[in-house]
Write a structure and sequence with these properties.
The complex is a heterotrimer of chains A (292), B (294) and C (284). Chain A is built from 11 helices and 12 strands. Chain A has 292 residues and is of the alpha/beta class. A 5-stranded mixed beta sheet of chain A has the order 2-1-3-12-4. Chain A has a 5-stranded mixed beta sheet with strand order 8-7-9-5-10, sandwiched between helices. In chain A, strand 7, helix 6 and strand 8 form a beta-alpha-beta unit. Chain B is mostly helical. Chain B has a domain of 172 residues: Orthogonal Bundle (MetI-like fold). Chain B is 77% helix and 1% strand. Chain B contains 12 helices and 2 strands. Chain B starts with a helix and ends with a helix. Chain C has 284 residues and is an all-alpha fold. Chain C has 2 domains: 38 residues; 241 residues, MetI-like (MetI-like fold, Orthogonal Bundle), CATH 1.10.3720. Chain C contains 11 helices and 2 strands. In chain C, strand 1 and strand 2 form a beta hairpin. The longest helix of chain C has 36 residues. Classes of the chains: A alpha/beta (292), B mainly alpha (294), C mainly alpha (284). Chains in contact: A-B, A-C, B-C. Chains A and C meet through helix 1, helix 2, strand 2 and helix 7 of A and helix 3, helix 8 and helix 10 of C.
Chain lengths: 292, 294, 284
């Protein structure tokens, strides 16, 4: 018994002495679930090429990442949406100056079960479905079954992006909020009445019905898997995938971002199923990458 | 002589402060919740918070902070859990106190303790991979993440509390009651149903209330297994979102010190008050039971 | 006569069914986790870091993180719990203050774990500026475990016969001397047993550490109290919901669940063995 007390005391002393050391120096990246797969892979390759550098990538949704940046708790916030004016104001109040880097392009996929014969929708119909105004598949050319909505939680950038750009209103409160892109995909694979939305990197290799979208009735239906449609802008739900940093990129952060934007980095991004940056973003990014 | 008396008093003082600490912690939690929740109510009207059924702080149109749907979801899944856990729990407790041989008790009691030790996240995990798909198959649904799933899982979590406290209540019924009943010709079953359980009733009710408190406060299980749909539930086969799950989902994405942040503390304060009252009620009932038993 | 016997038979059968159902529930839980998780357990799984976006490799940082945060919990909850129990059982008079303390203990044990998490965020992370780290999480868990350690310690103290105290006091020892030499040596085994059981529950908690320090993925082990940390319950949560390839990593999730309940089971077992050993030693 005395021995146990002694062991506890030693453990306590070790913890206390460890407390004197400073917290581990590393690049802390938090945020979007859409980006996490891709950025984790980039971080792994980067750490292999640069031993001694440490990058920790965690998820939680774009909202979590942005909140962490505003609270000063991360170095890079992955965001699959833009920061809102309110958030930028909050950041400035706390002394944080958010700068945006675009690392990839995403064609947001609206997905349904492979056994669902509906495979094209207009942007307007997508909005109505997710707002809860269209409730049965037969109203859009499918079988007679109620539509089951699968979505993300409000901390998701994908959720916010769809809300701002397509729904222009609130999601139906009956939407089942899933914790990540993968959960949505798994649910839809088992639910023939389901419909959901995920980043294009997540549909790679999955047996899913990726719905072709037209920007208006009678317009051309394009697929998010089509590189030229996404890059060219004919696919209506395209978005930049962003990273927000505090102030101009400098030091280790700058180095990692340059790696992400390099040929090798962009190749990794494409391997993960997303689309590499068209040239028009190069100039935009350069403004926010400071000198060494 | 005086020095050692002083030392004695000092030592007692230290232990007294230690005891006082507990009171401070409880008060501290309560006070901190209030202080962090109050700023929310500068922006949100109390009537909206408690009477509105739409919880949508990040709405496109108009932020809405009504907790009714969340409250109903919490109560639904709790009541469902108790409907399963109370009969099972009392039955098991009655078995342990009246029917089981000492050898069987040596097996069943550890089973209850092991069940009590299983963490909520493991139960929630099984809700996703095992119970959910089973419920989907049984009810012909495509997705098993709903209120029934939550109720079943919470019943598993509340069961050990209800069993052990009900068993205590049954054991504390004076044996004279039992002897008198049997002497009058009643069977053991009749004694159990008509004499022992009624005598232990307040203890059993207290046990059930503590089980209820446990179910209301549960976070991970409902977060993982009920589908997280913040709308007012239409039935047990609907996905729901409890108050605890709402906090767990949204606390990570709020910037500190915003209305949304404060509102989440308002939800936490509501939870604290509810569980506080349940605890007080079960205390009073237990007190009455102990007085009767003497 | 027959009617009564039939009713008794059916009634008792119902009770047996109840117990059967409860036993069956535990059996399913353990069977599912063991059968689907055991295949994943290997030295590599237990002792290596996760790789390739956590789709391969092991869960070492989660195991270490859970151990570290549980130690911090113990450092806060064990001495304070024992001290409070000593006050309640040895010194306290039956007055309003004592009733208030007991009421507080009972209420604290009923407070939802997420509310402790909220408290931890405001008090430890923000107000005390500890930030999100293993220390914040450990302190939050410590507060949550306090009611259990107090209750367990009090039980142990109550089990020491009054005669031990009376004899010592009769011989002229002071109150503290009595407690120190005649009560504590016999109570401490029981106290430690109970506290280990409380710590086992703390090890499995997720909600209090969600926002006070637990991290999704760290490529290193926490080296200081102010680092974030991975933890087994949080790891199970992200592996089964948030991960970007949840079907592929399902075996890892099962393995994590198995390691977690095994850890808790081992802690419980060691507490029981500990108590048995010390009781045996005292008999000799």
């Amino acid at each position: 018994m005395k021995r146990c007390l002694r062991i506890l005391l030693i453990a306590g002393a070790l913890c206390a002495s460890a407390g004197h050391a400073h917290a581990q120096k590393m690049i802390q990246i938090k945020g979007s679930d859409t980006l996490i797969n891709m950025v984790q892979r980039l971080a792994e390759v980067y750490m292999q090429k640069n031993p001694g550098k440490v990058i920790a990538v965690t998820g939680g949704g774009s909202g979590t990442g942005v909140a962490a940046l505003i609270n000063g708790k991360c170095d890079i916030a992955n965001a699959s949406r833009l920061m809102k004016d309110k958030e930028i104001a909050q950041a400035h109040e706390g002394g944080i100056d958010p700068k945006r880097i675009v690392v990839a392009i995403d064609g947001l996929c609206v997905v349904a079960n492979v056994n669902n014969r509906v495979n094209q929708l207009t942007v307007d119909e997508v909005g109505k479905i997710f707002r809860g105004e269209i409730v049965n598949w037969r109203d859009i050319g499918g079988a007679d079954m109620p539509i089951t909505l699968y979505g993300r939680q409000s901390n998701s950038g994908t959720y916010e992006f769809l809300k701002e750009v397509v729904l222009k209103g609130d999601f139906s409160p009956r939407t089942k909020s899933m914790n990540g892109n993968a959960q949505i995909i798994e649910a839809i694979k088992q639910d023939v009445s389901g419909i959901g939305y995920v980043g294009v990197g997540y549909v790679k290799g999955e047996s899913l019905n990726v719905i072709n979208i037209a920007s208006r009735p009678g317009g051309e239906y394009t697929s998010p898997l089509n590189l030229s449609a996404v890059r060219g802008g004919t696919y209506p739900i395209t978005r930049p995938l962003n990273q927000y940093i505090n102030g101009q990129a400098a030091g280790d952060i700058r180095d990692f971002i340059l790696f992400e934007l390099s040929g090798e980095g962009q190749r990794i991004i494409e391997e993960e199923g997303f689309f590499s940056l068209p040239d028009e973003y190069a100039g935009f990014n350069r403004q926010n990458i400071g000198a060494k | 002589m005086n020095l050692s008396r002083f030392k004695e008093k000092a030592i007692e003082g230290v232990f007294f402060l230690n005891g006082l600490l507990v009171v401070f912690v409880l008060l501290g939690i309560f006070w901190l919740l209030i202080v962090t929740a109050i700023p929310a109510f500068r922006e949100i009207r109390l009537t909206e918070f408690f009477l509105n059924h739409v919880w949508n702080p990040t709405s496109y149109v108009q932020s809405s902070y009504g907790i009714i749907s969340l409250l109903v979801s919490t109560l639904m899944v709790t009541v469902g859990a108790l409907c399963i856990a109370i009969p099972l729990g009392i039955g098991t407790a009655a078995y342990l106190s009246d029917l089981a041989s000492p050898r069987v008790r040596e097996i069943v009691k550890p089973i209850i303790e092991i069940l009590a030790g299983i963490p909520s996240v493991v139960i929630g995990f099984l809700g996703i991979v095992l119970v959910g798909p089973f419920i989907a198959k049984v009810f012909g649904l495509y997705n098993g993440l709903n209120a029934i799933n939550g109720a079943v899982l919470l019943a598993v979590m509340a069961l050990p509390t209800i069993v052990s406290l009900s068993e205590d209540a049954l054991k504390s019924v004076p044996s004279s009651y039992e002897h008198a009943s049997l002497a009058l010709g009643a069977t053991r079953w009749q004694t159990l149903i008509k004499v022992k359980i009624p005598a232990a009733l307040s203890g059993i009710i207290a046990a059930s209330m503590l089980g209820m408190g446990r179910a209301i406060g549960e976070t991970m299980t409902v977060l993982m297994a009920t589908g997280c749909s913040p709308a007012m539930p239409r039935g047990f086969l609907d996905s729901i979102q409890t108050m605890t799950a709402t906090i767990a989902i949204e606390l990570g994405e709020v910037a500190y010190n915003t209305t949304h942040y404060y509102a989440l503390f308002g939800v936490g304060l509501t939870l604290f008050v509810i569980t506080f009252f349940i605890n007080m009620a079960s205390d009073i009932i237990l007190d009455k039971h102990q007085k009767m038993a003497r | 006569m027959n009617g009564k016997k039939i009713k008794e038979f059916l009634g008792f059968a119902m009770l047996r069914v109840c117990v059967g159902v409860v036993g069956f529930i535990l059996l399913i839980i353990l069977y599912d986790i063991f059968s689907k998780g055991a295949g994943k357990i290997s030295l590599e799984f237990l002792f290596s870091m996760p790789r390739k976006g956590m789709t391969e490799g092991g869960i070492l940082p989660a195991i270490i993180g859970t151990i570290i945060v549980t130690v911090i919990t113990a450092i806060l909850a064990v001495p304070l719990g024992m001290g409070c129990a000593i006050y309640l059982n040895e010194y306290a008079r039956n007055n309003k203050m004592t009733r208030l303390i007991r009421m507080s203990i009972r209420n604290l044990s009923g407070v939802p774990s997420i509310v402790y998490g909220l408290f931890g965020v405001v008090f430890f992370v923000q107000f005390m500026r500890l930030g999100t780290c293993v220390l914040s999480s450990g302190l939050t868990l410590g507060l949550m475990t306090l009611p259990w350690t107090i209750t367990a310690s009090e039980e142990a103290l109550k089990n020491v016969p009054r005669s031990y105290r009376d004899g010592s006091l009769a011989l002229g020892a002071s109150k503290w001397q009595t407690i120190r030499t005649n009560v504590l040596p016999y109570a401490i085994p029981g106290m430690l047993t109970g506290t280990i059981l409380g710590l086992a529950r703390a090890a499995g908690e997720t909600a209090p550490i969600l926002f006070t320090g637990a991290a999704f993925y760290l490529p290193f082990l926490p080296k200081s109290l102010f680092d974030q940390f991975m933890a087994l319950p949080y790891h199970l949560y992200v592996m089964s919901t948030q991960h970007h390839a949840i079907v592929k990593v399902r075996p890892i999730a099962y393995g994590t669940a198995l390691v977690l309940i095994t850890l808790i089971f081992l802690m419980n077992l060691s507490a029981i063995i500990f108590r048995y050993q010390l009781r045996k030693r005292r008999m000799e």
